[in-house]
Amino acid sequence: MTSATRAFGIALALSLASAAAAKEKHLAPGDHALPLSYKRIARSYLLHLPPAARGDAPLPLVIAFHGGGGNAKGFQAYAGLDAVADREGFAVVYPNGTGRLAPRLLTWNAGRCCGYALDNKLDDVGFARRVIESVAEHARIDRKRIFATGHSNGAMMAYRLAAEAAGEIAAIAPVAGAMNLRREFAPTRAVPVLHIHSVDDPRALYAGGDNKSLSGATIHHEPVIAGLQRWEQRNGCSGAGRELERRSAPAPNGDGEHTAVHIAAGCPAGAAVELWRLTGAGHGWPGNEPGPLPERVMGPHANVINAAEEAWKFFARFPSRSESLEREASEARLGPLAAARAAPLPSRPDAANVPAPYRARSLPRIEALRAGALDPRDASPQCSSTLTSFDTPFSSIVTPYSRSAI
Question: Global pTM?
Fold first, then answer.
């Protein structure tokens, strides 16, 4: 045997040994509660690994943010994501937020909401990124197929993660919580969005406005449509919106019927912006069993759609973040400011149809945009959301419907 052959044999043996050691440190299928320190704060998450984790193929990962006042264990119990994960072969991680009474009553700093995390300016985007790294140390994760969903405050957190860490997130599916950012909205890439929300939600108001949290604090909710239109603009959507599907089902409490309409904006391939718009339902997570809070607090539970199933169905359409690289390069050459300036401005809004808080804050800024005296990037969230290819009247974004169908 030559020295070269011996060297090759030793290198191969070391490589195989290293691979075996790496495989041994990976966790087995099932549930795992893992601690994680971030910025000197002791935090934690739950990780659910499907039977497919026994194989060598990397798994897609869904980050699931619990609602405000909840925690990872509670969300895992009612979301129904684990059953879908086991069937479809993806991992689910449920991070825990923070709070004075941890592990109960936890919240996320989603920009303008909520509670302890917001008041203490916690870096929950950085924490979510650290969770991804930690999960990758314990399981084979496909880094190009990392998705995010969440309920209520957790939905807002999914939006913030997509806006500020777009390079790491392949798609999001927020449920019953609109985008509520404090910082400038400037994702580095297009991110597909599926939003699920009831127009009759008594807590996270579909049309926007102020509401009281369970703790009595005032929370401002942005209109669902305003956030979606901002993603339409970022994702380069220019075609007409269209209805994809309509469903109806008896209300689980026996009181009438719930409906669900699935609507899609006219977006490029790999950059979808879609909405499941429910009626009759409350603030709960649709499908499976109701959450822990009673109907008098949350409104009627709905099973006209199953949020876990719809979220994964949407995620499965986007096998890789790299699909849209060519389109993103084109956007980069044009520049977001040029794209915004090229988009049509809305016709003069009908002030009588705009609620007073929005009228006082936003109408002067729309007039400034029309006159060319205001950079589109400096417009308010409501104002900039009108810079879409649909040329939708401003007043329509605070109603359940718009000319774009979303």
Answer: 0.77
Residue 128 inside a domain? The answer is: yes
If one counts the domains in the chain, the total is 2
DSSP code, position 323:
G
Whether residues 210 and 276 fall in one domain: yes
- Residues with Cβ < 8 Å from 98, sequence gap 6 or more? 41, 43, 106, 107, 116, 117, 120, 122
Residue 57 three-state SS: coil
* Helix-helix angle 81-88:72-79, to 10 degrees: 70
CA 157 to chain centre: 7
Contact present, 192 and 172 (Cβ < 8 Å): yes
Which helix (H) or strand (E) element contains residue 315? helix 307-315
Q: Which ranges constitute the DSSP H helices of 37-105?
A: 72-79, 81-88
**Which among 334, 351, 369 is the end of a domain?**
334
Cis amide linkage into residue 267, ω under 30° from 0: no
Measured distance between the N- and C-terminal CA atoms of the chain, rounded to whole angstroms: 71
Write out the two tokens for 28: 């087995």
What H or E segment, with its residue span, contains residue 333?
Answer: helix 325-334
d(CA 398, CA 148): 26
Pairing of strands 209-212, 273-279: unpaired
Average pLDDT over residues 80-104: 96
For residue 219, the model assigns a pLDDT of: 87
| 3-state per-residue secondary structure call for 188-251 | CCCCCEEEEEECCCCCCCCCCEEEECCCCCEEEECCHHHHHHHHHHHHCCCEEEEEEEEEEEEC
The residue type found at 247 is R
Q: Is 334 helix (H, G, I), strand (E, B) or coil?
A: helix
Is residue 2 a part of any domain in this protein? no
Q: Give, for 7, the enclosing helix (H) or strand (E).
A: helix 3-25
What is the domain range of residue 360? 336-398
Q: How high is the pLDDT of residue 112? A: 93
Instruction: Look at the alpha carbons of 155, 156, 158, 159 in this order and tell me if their dihedral is positive or negative.
Output: positive
